[in-house]
Design a protein that fits this description.
Blueprint lengths: L2 E4 H6 L1 H9 L4 E5 L2 E6 L2 H8 L5 H12 L8 H4 L15
Parallel strand pairs: 1-2
Antiparallel strand pairs: 2-3
Length: 93
């Protein structure tokens, strides 16, 4: 749960709020009761602002970490009974 603090309160307790943010807790700052900003730690900021990995890059990283090449898996054998061989329903155009 996010902590809420007024900006005036944040000025008085900034060291404590920064420590909370460093420890992974988001701190919402308010002005006249309305949220205006969120204080978060650097790790969380980097996670949120970093460029997302493409699926192919993530798959390559996963395959390398798990060692898929060494498992000698045959996709044709693994997925042989997953798809029907029939052409499917007749379509009229």
């Amino acid at each position: 749960m996010t902590e809420r603090h007024s900006i005036a309160d944040a000025r008085r307790n900034l060291p404590t709020l920064i420590r909370d943010a460093e420890n992974g807790k988001a701190v919402e700052l308010t002005r006249r009761g309305e949220p205006v900003a969120v204080l978060i730690g650097c790790r969380e900021f980097e996670r949120l602002s970093s460029r997302r990995q493409t699926f192919s890059d993530a798959y390559r990283e996963f395959a390398s970490a798990v060692g898929l090449e060494g498992l000698a898996l045959d996709p044709d054998e693994l997925f042989a009974d997953v798809r029907e061989e029939t052409a499917g329903r007749e379509v009229r155009l």
